[in-house]
Each structure stands twice: as C-alpha cells, then as structure tokens.
Amino acid sequence: MKKNSNKYLPLIIGFACAIGVILGAALDFSDYTSSPFLSNNTKKEKLARLIDYIEYEYVDDVNIDSIVDITVNGILTDLDPHSVYIPQEEYAMVSESMKGDFVGIGVSFYSVNDTIVVIQPLEGGPSQKVGIQGGDRILYADGKPLFNKNISNDSITEHLKGEENTKVVLKVYRKGNPELLEFNVRRGRVPLRSVDAAYMLTDKLGYIKINRFAESTYKEFKESLINLKEQGATKIALDLRNNPGGYLGEATQIVDEFLPDDKLILITRNKKGAVEKTFATNSGNFEEGELFVLINENSASASEIVAGALQDNDKGTIVGRRSYGKGLVQREMALGDGSAVRLTIARYYTPTGRSIQKPYDHGNKEYFNDYLNRYKNGELINADSITVADSLKYITPGGKVVFGGGGIIPDVFVAKDTNFEKESLNLMLRSGYMDRFIFEVLENDREYYNSLVFEDFMQIEMVDEKILDQFRTFTIRENFQVKITDYEPVLRRYLKATMAQQLFGSNAFEQIVNEEDRMIEKVIELSLKK
C-alpha cells in the first residue's frame, strides 16, 4: 500500500537519488571484523577507541549512534558530493524506492476526517483487480476498525501490508451503496512504475518518459517500446528530463536497444586505473528508427549515460538544455547495522572518452548551487551562454563536435520558460499541491467521475468556471501567492491533468501536461523534417 500515488514517486525518489547516484553491485561488509580493510590499521583503531572513550568515560551521557552518524557524514562530505550515508531508519524506504515493486494491497489514499479514502487503486495492483475504486472508504481490515483519531498512518500500513499471497478482508463504504462492500484482497506485488508515460505524439512518433532507472525500468521500457512499434511508431522521443539517475545496468540495456552490435556504450575507470567497457549486443529493438532524447539541467547520472552514449555514437538527436553533470559511479555498501553508504568507486566516460562530471573542488555548497550559476549566466535561456573549453572538445565518428567538463550539451537547444507565474503554476502541479483540491472536486460527484472513460474525458471541458473559482479560493486559503488570471488556459490544463492522474493514472496525466510543451513541440517539428 502507498500513501501517495505514482506521481509522487519523484518526491520519495528525490531522497534516494536526487543527486543521481549510479548503483553497482552491493558489497557485504557485515562481517567487518574479518575485513582486510580494517586489520592492523592504527589510524582506524584510533577512531574506534575515541568513540569507546566517549561512551564509557565521558562525564555526561552521550548518544553514541548520533556521534557515529555525524562522523560518517563528515567523512563522506569531504570526499565528493555523491558519496552519501543512509541511516538504518531510512534504509528501507530508500531501498524500496529503487525496487520495481512492493508487497501490499496497492492503493494511494488520503486520511479524511480520520477515515482512509482511496485516491486511486494502483495500476496492476491487488485492489484494482478486485474492483476497489477512487473515493472508497476503507473502514475495516479483517474486522479491525481503521477509522480512529488516534490511528497513525504507520498503524494503517501495518494492518494492510503483509506477506505476499496472504489475504485481508476489507469492508468499504462507497457513496450510493446503503451497505458496506466486502472485498477479499490477496496481498501481492504492486508495480512501482518508472516509466510514467508511453503514447503516440503523432502517427509515426512515439513518446516514452522515464522518471528514474530502477530495477524494473528496462523491462517497462521494452514493453512500452514494443507496444509503440505495434501502433506504428518509426520514431521515438525518449524523455529523460528531471530524471536523477539510478541503476547503471538498466541505463546501458536501454541504450543497447538503439545501437548496433559491438558499439561502445560506456567506459568506467577506478582508482587503480582498471578500465571496464560496456558494448552493445545484437538484441537491439530500435536500431534503425529515428530517435530524440529530451534532457534538461536536472537530467543526471544514468540519464547522462544514455544521452552521452547515443550522442557519441551519432544515434539520434539530443534536445533540450545542458544536463546536470555527474560522471561518478557509486556502489552501495552495508555497514553491518542496517545502515549503508553509497561510495564513489569509479568515474565513467562516454564512448569518445569524455568525462561529463562538473567540478566539485570548491565544496558541496558551490556544487549544488550550480543551477543558480547557470540561471545567472543566462545559459538556461541562450545556448551561446554555455561555457565550454576547447581542451575538452571531442569528435564523434560521424564528425560531430561534443564537449566534456560538466554535463551533456544538447544538439538542439530549447530555452527554459522562466516566467515566474507560469513556473509557479508548474511547481504547484509537480509538487502535488493541486492534488488535494482535485480530490475534493472528485469527491463531490464520485459516481459521475468514476463512470468516465478516458476517451470521453479528453473530449470534455472538465474544468469550468465554478472549479476555477473554487481553486482561486483554495489558493488564498493555502496562502499560495500566484497570479493565475493571465495563465488561465495553463491552469485549466494542469487541473485537468491532475484530475486525469487520479482517475486514469500517470499516462493520462503526462498526455495532458505535455500539450504545448516547448521541448515536445520542438521534437515534433524535428521529426516532421526528416
């Protein structure tokens, strides 16, 4: 079970990989006493001895766990911006966010007046299969009441989660039904989708949006690609905007779908100088089709591996703005107590040999403020403002000039819309601010909204003047200061997209949001020229 729908996954994932970690194979350091790294090293023993002195001899009681956490964080901070510590209490959430599924009943919900109200059953989950709908109130689980002022979300989760294939009997109130409905739900694996959308932009151009590279991303992508080809797609737009990265293997498998056999995808080099190269295989499913890759300043890590590998092999067109600039590889290592570190263990290079890691020698604060520097120097508005060094110039096999030194520079630049009011509306949309409002709108007439099919929904003007007035009142009540009068068409589209998200899922949401999207419009324009 999830408290929020798939649209909020980037908020959860933001913690897990906001800095775009690339995960390799995990190492088990649980048996640290026998590790060769720790034996006969007096400097390491000194640190352990100091902590023992503080624990047993210091005059006041001290939380040793917090000291250890601070020490570990301090050590990692001095290494590089992407080596991070994951405390024990956060590890389960971080790990789950990068898996392809979880075990539960599969609903997103709000707590309304101390009652669990389903926003929507998650696609492919157990609740959807048995017929639970948005707006349903889950009142009992195996006879235990779930409506109580004192019941916490953790407690609710405890009642609804369980072992895979175990059953839970839910009693549900649905508006319009005089008696409670009973559902026997068999807990199962609920997909955590990393492909937000896959649909046709034109009769030949398919669109796939990936929000992160998790355990199931390649499988989801492959299914989407095959489905789009069956619909007639001979061209693909791969949207990696705001994708912070994730698993290295998932990214290289996706690149393999577009490159011929034996083409170089990636080079990694560790501290000992050992070099590993990853090549394309003969399993590509879209080696001949036209390709467009959408990136922006928040496309990081594994996203940059995809864009860089395709650009260096002269495959497709990279569209958008310069990417984040992360060329470091992390591996997750257990610390033996349920916590872990993600430690930088190598650098990666694109097929032409360029590193796209931006400098971090001025400290982490300066490193993470790079976006502000880009904004100030104007490169988000004008491609000519991007600073490149001739010493970092590389030539692709096809003769194209590319640069290293801090991100992937696109082949076709699309400026960012920096209008404050429109950006504020977009922030409201992507942060989930509009969701509670739309949930209340849907609750006013659940029977009608749940009866709609997507094709009819798209043709109806769902957001009328009454809903707009209600939203204006809502923004005042929530103290959100934004002038929406001049952007009414955008606001209508965003509210309708949020409505579609709660009724039909992320694919419907993206289709509506992407209307009049500058970058997608540019991709469509480019696809029609070829």
UniProtKB/TrEMBL annotation:
The keyword Hydrolase applies. It comes from the Bacteria. Pfam families: PDZ_2, Peptidase_S41. The keyword Endoplasmic reticulum does not apply. Residues 91-161 form the PDZ domain. InterPro entries: ClpP/crotonase-like_dom_sf (IPR029045), PDZ (IPR001478), PDZ_sf (IPR036034), Peptidase_S41A (IPR004447), Tail-specific_protease (IPR005151). Keywords: Hydrolase, Protease, Serine protease. CDD domains: cpPDZ_CPP-like, Peptidase_S41_CPP. Belongs to the peptidase S41A family. This is S41 family peptidase. The lineage of its organism: Bacteria, Pseudomonadati, Bacteroidota, Flavobacteriia, Flavobacteriales.
